[in-house]
Amino acid sequence: FGDDVTGGGVQYPAFFLLYLAALVRMMGEIPALQFSGPFLAGLTGLPMYLFLRRYVPREYALLGSAMMVFSEGISEMIGWGGNPTLLGIFFGTLFLTFLYDTVAKGTWRARLLAAASFALLAGSHQVSLAFFGFVGILFLSLFLALTRRIPSFLSGLSAIALGILGAAPLIPFYLSLGQTGADFLPTASNFPSAQDVGFIFGWLFREALIVWIPIAVISIVGYARLRSQDIVGFCLGVTLLVSPLVLAFTLMAVDPVRAFYYLYLGMIPGALIFVERALSRAKSIPRARGLKADWNSAGVAVVIGVALFLVSTSYARMNSATDWYYVASTDVLDGLSWIQSNAPIGSVVATNGPMKYGNDELVGCMWGWWIEGYARRPSLCTANPTALAWKDQVLMAADADRAFYGTNVAETGVIRVGDFAPFGTEGNPLVAANFGFGYTTFASFSDAGMAITWKPSQSASDLESSPSQMPIHSANVTTDQTRAVFRYGADGPNLTVERIVDTSQSSPVVWVNYTVVAIGVLHTVEVKIFGGSRTIFGGNDPSIGSIAVSNVPGFRTRIQGNLKLTAASSDLARMDISPHPANGNPAAIFSFAPNQTSFSASFAVMPSVDPPPAGGDLRLYNAISIFDNRRVQYALLDRADVRHVTWCAQDAQHWREVYSNEGVVVFERTNA
Predict the structure, then answer these.
(1) In this structure, are 425 and 459 located in the same domain?
(2) pLDDT value at position 147?
């Protein structure tokens, strides 16, 4: 219990695990998870009310806590399962409340309450501990710099020290976290740009951006007016307001969106201070005789209006979460139940997750967590290694990514090429590039999508063929330290197709070459090329057979490059482009009319990445060898995943289907 998909031990602090274990014991697994998110979300309103009471009157604090509970970030965390974060916000807000009292009043009661809250924060969520710990230290430092009140500073510092002492039983956990955790320090490749931060802000606040932008602005003014009246509140409020931005560009740069979930804690108090102070000043303005105005009621009415608006946007966010986030269906749960009942204890289950986000997205851990927690079996699941928290998980995900990228896979360090031949018919080959945040699929070819119209000798009618439909298939890959060549052949009566894929360590260009030979006349040959799930086919030039490839708008998606027909034995007759379909990947069909007995064409796949440094070795991986090394005995696949379901179904030497329903298919290794 508490293991993540690595199977490497407890990876959440003890208090959160005890809380979740108690819920599971009382309600059962699924009801406990359904209850926990809304429960913790509502619970965040209590410490927020106490915190706001340090700044504004009771009615404003009550409405401000409602704004916090119904903010989109809280709804977002209910959607993606941010229970540890919500529990961390609960105790972290309590910690800041009592730290305020400690610095302002210096009482031992406040000091001990702050220390207890800090210890419980450490037992709830490590990321929240990092955020609130950073805020606490920065707040005390700013306070000391502005006031030189050393006794008050030391009082706050002692509260944190006592909190660390109270969290002493968790020291072994955090030491192991430091040893097993991945490297989360930012580098030049994963440092967020201003565009990334702007995208995150717009995405996180998207339903109520028209409200949060003015709230952010007036919160700055509110804190500025507070400095002369409450220096402690000013220092803490300013620290809360700027800390998410500071952390997004520093300690949390690898996953900066996490820092923005705490932004509400700084914006709401400042905005309420502004409204309450502005209306207080309005009371002192002389009014004409007989004119009465209840400015406090007017201010409360304004805040109520904002809170009600946030209730509606929060409801909209919860509804949209079902579209964006993945919710395990009954079919998936039935598949997991079959695994739990039939797979031997300790059997490793491989998965690349649901097809909800595209046929090449690395989302296997969405099912990997369920395999671990619900089916009680270890998993090997795909994921983007740059976004993972544990070293073991990074290594396992890298293996899973390669195994699900083709029967054989070659990597240069910036280019990954996979091919499912001779079993799969889609993604032959798959080409991915590392644009700075892990491998992202750039383009793929399709044996099933290749269409050939031809007339055999001494035949009166045309035939339509595809390599995937031919009776005989062969495939092999040859490699040395700098180059890999994938060869695939399909043979049928009077028709052969050969496809050769060539990649090398010294170049980011991947060459895909086709040769078609018929005993007869080839009338038309169509080659179909797909983009990745995150790509758009932009400007194209049919005269030279070139397509510009870019990325869909999003966070850290900087895909650039070209697909180009570099040579063909006959002219390009037509090029049809589907640049960015509503469903599915972009696609291009290159049509030729050879009217000869043979045809050949060469395509260059050119992602805009630099070749790896000289001296590096190209590496070749085999999917079955990876599964053998990881002791994989089962695979859980989405039935809509044609690429991998076909691959396993055709490879009878290594897989056999043992369970299926309308949503999932389970394959078992025949030689595991």
Answers:
(1) yes
(2) 93
